């Protein structure tokens, strides 16, 4: 191979070929095809738009966004921001978006963790482990998600009532009203402790970077966990203690026909989260397995022959290469969780689809309702895609 | 090749052997791939292992740094016996460098990072020092100008020279070569062989699985001929090639020479 730095042709441009006006010229064909495609897409869009406007006019259907300011009168069972049926449709839709985000974000995190563990386990040399995981993956991938959601929901509905609730530990109740967990009264100092913990997490990130830089300077690797413990645990707990250590346990207890107090996970949310997580984890497991297998055995051997211990081989050599295979299909799975969460409507979890659906039934403004659903999903999906593509390009491989 | 061109031997016969294999056996399932291998290699000795494909030569040298596990017998490297003990395995791998047929450079790291990875994480060397060391060896395999490129941007011969430099950065006492030129075009074979000759001149203990007979004549103190998992014949290269004692070696040599 010649050295490009001393190649005299290096840096010059190839001569431009003149355009030949003939059907035999590839570029002429390309231009003609492009004009055709743009024309067809444009006319379809125009037809759809004018047709819609015409029909709306003929049927005297009101359009516009005024309904968002009207009172919704729509009961919502669970909400992350304060909500009351007397609030506006806008508020109701916001609650729906947050409910969608809640199940999608928690689902993505849990499915990634579970899927990664399953993917690694499927590669296990232990026959029983790999077969059990393989069977699990086949089952969850082969059955329709809607069926699985209905199964989990029916299973949770089949649990005993509050009076006969499964009661494995103090304050923990599993019944057909959902899962009840003990919690404590949330007060001001808890906010501060939480804030300090988050600051500690950021601090740990920078500490890790500094420790790595120091190791590069003097060669000595440093343990991260002591500083991480102090920043993320000791300091927040100390602050909480200094502020009077408020702690009022809030333990759920049976009062009459239902539970009072504690933290509630509704059966709808629980079934949806369970279904989405278990289903998507099956796909993620296969993606992770394929990613690890895509790194050749030779890479393991070369790194081990250099004396690197297995954990370091994984971190420094195999994972960085596996990730570039894993990330693009993983992005699809994250998008799938987000979009599949719309199946919530089947089991009565009030996500954006469910609430927008009710809204359009009550107001009759179908186009706006559907548009809202599309814009919400598009926004979430594009955000995930943008982030993942940025991450992917950051770890991309240089070739040629 | 004339005898004048052969290297001066640097074998240290009075020291304990660098590598000692005694009664080593290995099976892949029912296939008996190594049969009762006995071989002592002295410090500074350069051994070429040859034989038809499937004769177990790669498996044998891969047992020396335990990329393959032997099932019977004893292997001692640099005074440490290979066992299930991970500590002794780490110690041996630090002292034994290896070069593979398919280079196995890390494609996500630059040439320089490929060379500094093990010194930094295994030898606990400061980055600057590791980089200086890496540049020194890249200089020696004559590709320092490629240091900031990625493996995918280099030719096969250049990649293999980087692989040699990467192994040397760990300052090993012993170097294993597993068919280092078999995946290369003829014009690149020479640049890699030249690098290996240069390494031999420094007195490195080398075991090299190769079919390059010219290299064997020029560099090897001893040639080991393997067939069907056994060591069939060993000897000084000229004697072995010109006066083969066994029919199997005669057959092998005639096939090799016909190919040239």
The CATH superfamily of the domain at 89-142 and 271-395 in chain A is MetI-like
The pLDDT mean of chain B sits at 90
User: Which shape of chain B, going by the Cα principal axes?
Assistant: globular
Class per helix and strand makeup of chain B:
alpha/beta
Give the oligomer, counting copies of the same chain as homo and different chains as hetero. heterodimer
Q: Give the C-alpha Rg of chain B.
A: 18 Å
Number of helices of chain A: 12
Strand order, largest beta sheet of chain B? 6-7-8-3-9-10
Give me the Rg of chain A, rounded.
28 Å
Low-confidence stretches of chain B: none
Largest interface: A-B, 33 and 39 residues
Strand content of chain A: 5-15%
- How far apart, in Å, are the first and last alpha carbons of chain B? 15 Å
Number of strands of chain B: 10
- Major sheet description of chain B: 6 strands, mixed
SSE succession of chain B: EEEHEEHEHHHEHEHEEHH
| Main sheet attributes: strand count, strand direction, barrel closure of chain A | 4 strands, antiparallel
Beta-strand proportion of chain B: 15-25%
- Helix-strand sequence of chain A: HHHHEEEEHHEEEEHHHHHH
**Helix-residue proportion of chain B:** 25-40%
Describe the structure.
The radius of gyration of chain A is 28 Å and the shape is globular. Chain A is 65% helix and 6% strand. In chain A, the strands form three sheets. In chain A, strands 1-2-3-8 form a four-stranded antiparallel sheet. The model of chain A has no long low-confidence stretch (mean pLDDT 89). With 400 residues, chain A is an alpha+beta fold. Chain A contains twelve helices and eight strands. Chain A has a domain at 89-142 and 271-395: MetI-like fold. Chain A has helices at 26-59, 89-122, 127-142, 145-157, 188-218, 225-242, 267-294, 297-305, 310-340, 344-347, 352-363, 366-394, and strands spanning 166-169, 172-175, 178-181, 183-184, 249-250, 253-255, 258-260, 263-265. Chain B has 260 residues and is an alpha/beta fold. Chain B has nine helices and ten strands. Chain B has helices spanning 57-64, 86-95, 111-121, 127-140, 156-168, 186-201, 213-219, 237-242, 247-258; strands at residues 19-28, 31-41, 46-50, 72-77, 80-81, 96-99, 174-178, 205-209, 222-227, 230-235. In chain B, the strands form two sheets. Chain B has a six-stranded mixed sheet with strand order 6-7-8-3-9-10, with helices on both faces. A four-stranded antiparallel sheet of chain B has the order 2-1-4-5, covered by helices on one side. In chain B, helix 3 crosses helix 4, helix 3 (111-121) packs parallel to helix 5 and helix 4 crosses helix 5 (156-168). The mean pLDDT of chain B is 90. Classes of the chains: A alpha+beta (400), B alpha/beta (260).
């Amino acid at each position: 191979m010649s050295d490009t730095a001393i190649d005299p042709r290096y840096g010059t441009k190839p001569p431009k070929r003149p355009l030949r006006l003939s059907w035999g010229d590839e570029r002429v064909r390309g231009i003609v095809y492009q004009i055709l495609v743009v024309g067809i897409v444009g006319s379809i869009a125009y037809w759809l738009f004018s047709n819609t406007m015409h029909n709306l006019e003929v049927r005297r259907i009101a359009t516009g966004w005024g309904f968002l300011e009207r009172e919704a009168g729509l009961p919502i069972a669970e909400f992350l921001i304060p909500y009351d049926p007397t609030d506006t449709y806008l508020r109701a839709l916001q609650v729906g978006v947050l409910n969608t985000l809640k199940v999608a974000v928690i689902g993505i995190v849990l499915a990634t963790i579970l899927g990664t563990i399953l993917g690694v386990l499927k590669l296990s040399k232990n026959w029983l482990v790999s077969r059990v995981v393989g069977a699990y993956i086949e089952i969850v991938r082969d059955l329709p998600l809607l069926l699985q959601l209905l199964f989990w929901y029916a299973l949770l509905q089949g649990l005993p009532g509050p009076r006969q609730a499964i009661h494995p530990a103090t304050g923990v109740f599993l019944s057909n009203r959902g899962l009840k967990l003990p919690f404590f009264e949330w007060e001001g100092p808890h906010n501060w402790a939480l804030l300090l913990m988050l600051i500690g997490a950021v601090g740990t990130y920078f500490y890790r970077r500094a420790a790595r830089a120091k190791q590069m300077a003097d060669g000595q690797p440093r343990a991260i966990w002591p500083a991480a413990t102090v920043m993320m645990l000791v300091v927040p707990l100390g602050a909480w203690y200094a502020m009077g250590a408020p702690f009022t346990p809030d333990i759920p207890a049976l009062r009459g026909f239902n539970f009072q107090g504690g933290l509630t996970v509704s059966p709808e949310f629980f079934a949806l989260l369970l279904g989405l997580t278990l289903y998507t984890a099956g796909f993620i497991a296969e993606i992770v397995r394929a990613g690890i297998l895509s790194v050749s055995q030779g890479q393991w051997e070369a790194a081990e022959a250099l004396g690197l211990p297995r954990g370091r081989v994984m971190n420094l050599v195999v994972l960085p290469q596996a990730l570039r295979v894993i990330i693009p299909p993983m992005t699809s799975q994250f998008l799938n969780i987000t979009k599949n969460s719309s199946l919530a409507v089947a089991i009565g979890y009030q996500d954006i689809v469910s609430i927008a659906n009710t809204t359009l039934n009550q107001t009759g403004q179908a186009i706006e309702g559907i548009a809202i659903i599309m814009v919400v999903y598009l926004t979430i999906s594009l955000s995930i895609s943008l982030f993942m593509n940025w991450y992917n390009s950051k770890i991309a491989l240089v070739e040629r | 090749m004339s005898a004048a061109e052969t290297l001066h031997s640097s074998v240290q016969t009075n020291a304990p052997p660098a590598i000692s294999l005694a009664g080593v056996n290995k099976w892949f399932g029912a296939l008996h791939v190594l049969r009762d291998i006995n071989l002592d290699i002295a410090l500074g000795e350069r051994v070429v292992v040859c034989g038809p494909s499937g004769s177990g030569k790669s498996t044998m040298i891969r047992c020396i740094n335990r990329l393959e596990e032997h099932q019977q017998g004893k292997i001692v490297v640099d005074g440490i016996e290979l066992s299930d003990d991970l500590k002794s395995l780490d110690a041996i791998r630090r002292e034994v460098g290896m070069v593979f047929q398919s280079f196995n450079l890390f494609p996500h790291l630059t040439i320089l990072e490929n060379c500094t990875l093990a010194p930094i994480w295994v030898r606990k060397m400061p980055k600057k020092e590791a980089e200086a060391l890496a540049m020194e060896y890249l200089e020696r395999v004559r590709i320092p100008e490629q240091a900031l490129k990625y493996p995918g941007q280099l030719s096969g011969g250049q990649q293999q020279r980087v692989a040699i430099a990467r192994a040397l950065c760990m300052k090993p006492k012993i170097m294993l070569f597993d068919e280092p030129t078999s995946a290369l075009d003829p014009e690149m074979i020479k640049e890699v062989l030249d690098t290996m000759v240069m390494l031999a001149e420094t007195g490195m203990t080398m075991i090299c699985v190769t079919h390059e007979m010219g290299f064997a004549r020029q560099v090897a103190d001893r040639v080991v001929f393997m067939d069907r998992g056994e060591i069939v014949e060993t000897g000084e290269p000229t004697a072995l090639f010109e006066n083969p004692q066994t029919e199997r070696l005669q057959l092998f040599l005639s096939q090799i020479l016909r190919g040239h």
